[in-house]
Automatic annotation (TrEMBL), chain A:
GO terms for cellular component: cytoplasm. CDD domains: MPP_superfamily. Belongs to the metallophosphoesterase superfamily. YfcE family. It comes from Mesorhizobium denitrificans. This is Metallophosphoesterase.
From TrEMBL, chain B:
This is Serine/threonine protein kinase. CDD domains: STKc_PknB_like, USP-like. Residues 14-271 form the Protein kinase domain. SUPFAM superfamilies: Adenine nucleotide alpha hydrolases-like, Protein kinase-like (PK-like). The keyword Manganese does not apply.
Amino acid sequence: MLIGILSDIHANREAFDAALEAISQAGAQRIILLGDLVGYGPDPTYVVEKSRALIASGAVGILGNHDEAAATGNTSGMSENARDAIRWTIEQLSADQRDFLAKLPLSHLDGEILYTHAGAWRPQSWPYVMEASDARRSFEAVPARIAICGHTHVPAIFYSTAHGSVSSFTPLANKPAPLFATLRSVIVTGSVGQPRDGNPAACVALLDTGAMDVTMLRIAYDWDKTAEKISRAGLPGWLGMRLKIGR
Amino acid sequence: MSQTFAPGVVIDGFELVERLPSGGMASVWKARKPGIDGDVILKIPFLDPGQDVSVVIGYEVEDMIARRLSGKHVPHFHAFGDLRNVPYIAMEFVEGTSVAALAKSAPLPFEEVRRIGIQTGEALAALHEQKVTHLDLKPENIIIAKRGAVLLDFGLARHAELPDLLAEQSDVPMGTAAYIAPEQVLGIRNDKSSDIFALGCILYQLASGEEPFGWPQTTAGMRRRLFQRPPALRSLNPNVPRWLEQIIERCMEVDRARRYTDAGQLVHDLRNPDQVRLIERKPEPTGLKALFHRLFGGGDARTELLLRKSTDMGEGPPVIVTAVDLSGGIDALAEEIRTETAIVLAARRDSRLACVAVLKTEIIGDSPQVDADGRSNYVNMLVSLKDWAHPLHLPDGRASFHVLEAVSPADAILDFAERNHAGRIVMGARASSAMRRHLGSVSTKVVAEAKCSVSVVRIKAVETAASDTTPE
């Protein structure tokens, strides 16, 4: 089965639509929205409503830290830009939309695949999976053969190999990276709406459970338009600027 | 997983015929399957409970890489078993002679060593073109078949665009003690020139009868190759020509900036021994000086050198073939070709240039071979070629000169470029219609049929007389 995994959409309507179009063309049979639907970006209402519709027709939604902050108003631990954006986001959303965000689950287990927004060992504390040592904590804490998360905005894959050691791999754009029948993996998908790996194109993970591989699809979209909306909304200028450079 | 294997047992349609000698990682069976001509090899990893995880990883690596390999220099892979059922790799049984068998009669005649070097170098070039580094090249893994050298066993291999499951897997160097490259001893697994080092060790062994670094049993023993050179090849076998000794030494350079970085360059030198520039070997430090050097001097500096990657040399083509027509002297087009050649050369610091001129023969043996002064056309052309290249100021060893005699210049250039693994051909095209009848079609044919990129240089039409220029 082909599964399209969209993480860290961050209220970026242009990137979200481009990503959905790309996975539909690729033939994805299932959609996972891996958290952080909102925050940073200028279109929270659109992204929340579209996500709600997708979930109603079978997609899986997961809670991200920005979704939680937008639902509860608690922005502790966030950067100033993120806090400003959350305050603005709360003003845009209806009580009903915030309630939808509040009810998203922290994780979803589908057979041998576990989905969380942040590190699977303590998803409610939002740890990042950046390095092999982070992935090792995940391997030690959860038995899932494939654990998939986002949150860092930087795509990576970690494989649990011999004697507790972990191999790291930076998947290449649009090239399938293999998964292995005998080795467990942690897949960190890049961000749809705010990539930070130097490539401004939206990132979607396409997991092929038949061929046993995962591809980080990169989709160019109109980031100038999104940046302009950010500026018009009075959100911090850097949030628009970074979309153009992918940082 | 607990299936027993015996002659007659059928796995996914493959009937096991006979168990072949095999190592500790997998059992190897000769097998057959209806619909497949010839024998099949079935490699079945030992994946019993309690088996070391590294066996599983080695199998996963080989499975991952073999699926992506093709061409005549690897076995044809028929099928891959499902790891959750019976894992196996089914591949063609390659008819031929293992280099391990040939090594038993070493020292071999140097022509034989050269031939094996060229064939294996070509197989490495084909493998490296597919972004794969073997990292465990040894005589047992090379079969000299009718179609050329065929490389086996990709359990330690690395694909540049795929995860390296073996990186940082163990403190023990992964490879074979006699042939492992020094950087691999330090755990570096990302350089195709590691395969060239191993090939150098194999050629040394074939030429002398001895492994250059012996068979060290410990990591410390393997590390010794970082600091100590093997005995000069000609001290073991004086019949080895100096050019061959030098080529093999260059394969075994510890400093990857001085080693061949590209298998195509090695093949080129083995094919053109008269172009190898001979250098005096520096005497090794002896006595106390050597001891001091080993204990305090060379070590860190050597390790530093090893951490420098050979591909820091730039990204241009490693071998450039420039074909130039000097029958009219060094004309404007020849100068333009030289300028273009300089630009391509500059893209990579260690690139090599092969300058080619074609001596056109109408029918072989039917052309005047001597000019009015009695000098042969061949020598005249070689002299002009060197004269043409002089302004490039290339050090000896970076450029070589070749006069090809041929009926069809295009075929000669194409054949030469392919045999020497050219990454780029630079040549000219004439704008004048009179000349094009003669030569212009050469570039058209080369562009159409070359297996690498071709830069075609032209003189702007304005600069030639308008009357005899056909617009392009």
